[in-house]
Task: structure prediction
Amino acid sequence: MTTLPTARRRGAAVPDDVRPVRVTGPRVARLLDEVEGADAPRRTALADAFWNEVEERGTPPVEALDGRPGHRAVTFLWRGHRATRRVLLSAHHLTDRGRPAGSLLERVPGTDVWHLGLRLRADHRGSYRLVADLSPKEPVPGPDGLQQRLRSLTAHAAADPRGRLSVPTRWRPADSSVFALPGAPPQPWAGRRGHVPAGHVERHRVAGAAPIGDRDVWVYLPPGSGRTDVPLPVAVVCDGDMWFGRMGFGDTLDALIADGALPPLVVVAPDAVDRCTRWRDLGGREPFVAFPADELLPWAAGRRPLTTDPRRTVVVGQSLGGVTALYAALLRPERFGNVLAQPASLWWRPGVPAPAGAEPAVYGTPWLAGRYACAPARPVTVHLDVDLHEGAMVDHHRALYEVLRPAGHRVTYDTYNGGHDYACWHGAPAAGLIRLLGGSTTPTDTHTALATSATPAAPTAPAVPAGSRAAGAARVGATAPRKRRAAQTPPGPHQRRGTP
Result:
């Protein structure tokens, strides 16, 4: 049993029951037992039978582990051929981009089955990509040569050809595959429901002052919005090109409104454009805060009746967009009364260069937490989400929470088990918007205690023959599962989680 090398992250250690551990899943372990000592035709037949099962069930296989009801064995698979030299897994927070050799799949001897099994807590959701090295040349001798070859290979990684679920990726033409374990938070509003009334998504070019300039902006109008003069709640969402251009977030909003989980609202979402523009705009940048506050929202209000009440206005962002959302409420609380940051890149500070690898170190209080600490309390409601694999970022979010709450801000904080990617974020804005806007025109004046992620009860593991390799592989130790969250589904309109 080994812990898979994951990205080095300063600060809070990843909880032991969350950290990925390399294991051999029961089904692959059985195949290893069966091929041992078998001749070539028998090995081929066994591998064919294995792949037939995989085609029927999809990848990656998720299996119960003997003695670990709160965990699963997740096996990433690749069907190779004679030219396959090695196969690499790339997965958010489960593998280390700087040391990719630690994430190579292994081959079942004498077969075309390549595999890498991980023990993961049963509430994990994440995305992954795979790539095979077919080069006839060996890398430069030595570990550095192999690492360099694999790092260049990751640019060609793509979705699992046998995966059932996928998610778009930023700045890449190929999607990533998605897996969600049984206890992962549900995403009941993701995807299109054909029977619900559909809102209208438009794309406009909106004039903006320098340095932002003119910007493409996506606008979501709820069903029936053209037949009312009542000012509607409004959300400003960073990264509109992802949320509406690739993720189909309008379908999620349609479902939320149809279920009564959200009131009809208007969403405006400026494009991020490209990497350089996104880095220039997002974070603690005053010009990008002024753009939605002084130009974008007044422009949108000229097309549909929009509220000017900050209590019915929310700004939403992930990663650097999360910093932007928090900074907008700090600078312009009279316009932005609700913040949804899922998670925020709180390592950001003025002057920090764009990270080429791991996030820059933060010593002491994060810059944005320090800004809030020095400012008077604003009538702002904030919700923070952070991934338990984020290391130092977990510390940063806790530090910001501890600044906001004593100062009198309305703040909630939650953790989740997954990747820093849209596989997890796809469902997060729905739950967050419900928390901030659902069921009431004014936010509730409560706080939520620091939440811990849940490990759900798992089905009983299937019987494994005693003494087999599978039995040994399944016994990887046991720890008590973490306490279950108070709510396993996003709260409904009148189910706000919180304690005074």
